[in-house]
Amino acid sequence: MVLTTLNDYCYIIYKVIFNYFFADCFNEFSMSDLSNIAQIVISIINLILVFYVFVYQRRKDNDQDQKNIRSENQSINLQWFKDLAIQPNLNNINYFYDFLSSTQLKFTKENNQIINKLLIVAELKDEYYKIRLSFVDILESIDISLHSSVSTNFETLIDKLSTVIIDSDADFTESSVFKEHILTPISLSRKQFISDIFRYKGTIN
User: Fold this and answer.
1) CA 169 to CA 162: how far, in whole Å?
2) Which residues contact 85 (CB under 8 A, 6 or more apart)?
3) What would the mean pLDDT of 161-181 be, rounded to a whole number?
4) Are 153 and 196 in contact (CB under 8 A)?
5) What is the tens place of the pLDDT at every residue in 108-155?
6) What is the pLDDT of residue 45?
């Protein structure tokens, strides 16, 4: 006979061990006794399997319950985030970006001196200060990572605009120049802000 599977080897080993150690012992039992013993063994195995399935299912149910609780808590947190942080400040956020985008009207060929630029930069920083007090600082109590990302985004934008306005000799009355140096950074910042808000999952610090 050719052995083709591991089961064949296991079966032969089992027969050798059984015949060597247990054959004489079981010869003393009747077929009825052996049947009863087999039933007991099968019952024990079934009980073990039932217990294992029960424990496994219980653990699985507990894990699922924990996931459901976390998901429910995140949904509640997101709703509070929307109601308490985003919705009341939505107009302020839009106004902040719209104000930055409207600064082209403040540049004129006759009025494009350093003093005028300093006044424009001061207005930009003043608007950032307002949005920081009304919105950005609130985020710190909601999610530290979100607060850091939004704060860095806004500060980087204001610093970049301030630097290019003060140091650049570009004529910002030209639409193409204004778009390149002012509108493009504003647009990128706005996209980053929206991305940060949508990535927030309602987690707790």
Assistant:
1) 13
2) 135, 138, 139, 142
3) 90
4) yes
5) 766 557 778 889 999 999 999 999 999 999 999 888 999 999 999 999
6) 77
pLDDT at site 8: 55
Residue range 144-160, pLDDT digits in tens: 999 999 999 999 999 99
Cα Rg, the chain, nearest whole Å? 37
Nearest to 149 by CA among 81, 195, 88: 195
* Orientation angle between helical segments 114-131 and 144-167, nearest 10 degrees: 170
